[in-house]
Amino acid sequence: MSSSPRFTPASTADRLAPTVKTGVPYRAMALEVEPAAAPATPAPAPPAQHSARAFDSTSRDDTPRREPTPGVAEADNTPAVRLLSDTLREATRRNASDLHVEPTEHGWRMRLRIDGVLHAIAQPPAHLRDAFITRVKVLARMDIAERRVPQDGRLRIATTPGKFEDYRVNSLPTLFGEKLVLRRLDALPAALSLDSLGLDPAQRATLEAAISAPHGLVLVTGPTGSGKTLSLYCFLQKLNAESRNLCSVEDPAEIQLAGINQVSVREKAGLTFAVALRAFLRQDPDVIMVGEIRDEETADVAVKAAQTGHLVLSTLHTNDAPAAIARLIDIGVEPYHLAAALRMVTAQRLVRRLCVVCRTAAPQSAAALRAAGFSEDQLDGWHPYVAAGCDACHRIGYRGRVGIHQVMPVSDAMRELIVANAGTLSLARQAQAERVGTLREAALARVRDGTTSLAEALGATEVV
Ligand SMILES: [Zn+2]
Description:
- The chain is of the alpha/beta class.
- Helix content is 32%, strand content 23%.
- The structure holds zinc ion (ZN).
- Residues 355, 357-358, 389-390, 392-393, 397 line the site of zinc ion.
């Protein structure tokens, strides 16, 4: 039914946009910066040898003018340029999601976020710091002379010949200079499918039934960075068929999905989640995705859309599935509307997968396993694996991540509790009675089957 996943980073659109033809800094998306505003104090000139070098290739009279598109094969081969290429290649090789470039009092450091955790990489030479930061800002079309306000930009770079990668770049003026964070936009799974989410067979069946329904509200909950949006993309991809009109509004849309009408929120222009949602309803929709429900107006339109023949998918910041109900009532949704609209709530976390090359079984006391939540019949001399570290996993002990889920279909008994304005505790008890597993239980199942460590499972599902 669903077509093969085809998606590209949203920055593809940028590639088609007119590009800057010279190395002249381009104030792309500087936050709240008045172009004409004169600085109160003259901005310190960038260190001469570095900034001059950065523009060499485009400012010399005898060289043809070209846009500053970088690449490993580029003639401009200063140590800072090489360091940038090497670092981004390393980020790709290790499938990092972000690169942090951080000035310190006497130097700088670089760290990669891999599977949600930051790891320092080889100490870069101190004298290359300014040239490196300037280089990134030039490529991201940020104003290199402006160092006192945060700026945003994007850059595209050839990490290996013929293979381009896109980054979203953000600068922040810190005490010791500008800190840069480069987010890799290509750090995405190869396929957006329900299989990639890590659901157990029963959860998958429940979830498929809920998203195959013609109408209702389906919510994915969890903290930032728990993979909620990726889950919604997988749901959308599953429903992506010629016979359906799918619309999504996000803040911002980071992945382009062929076949889905995607809208990015632009608050300044008045395009909010609620405005986009109302517009969708006039566009003959079947499935609507709302990136996040965070205000009464959005919640109200989403709930009403779900009651009037549309399938609405969205996310919410709550600890677990039962808490989502109290949160929506808190935002201002009427309990009887919510009871009628809500079809399913899931909660999720990501845990790191142990490296299968080096994981080792380590004895754990029965008391520790019992305290974690394992049942007596599981304490049969079995020992969980712990992370070790080898060349295959760059001495980290983990490679990649997997989702753990709580999948809670909304039953008639729960609808009655919602209408009666029951608290989260009563809803959680009802979910338990209906054999909805908790996140902790899902995490422990992954420890039991050797996918992850006890430390990782406990860290991701702290019981508050
Ligand atoms: Zn390993």
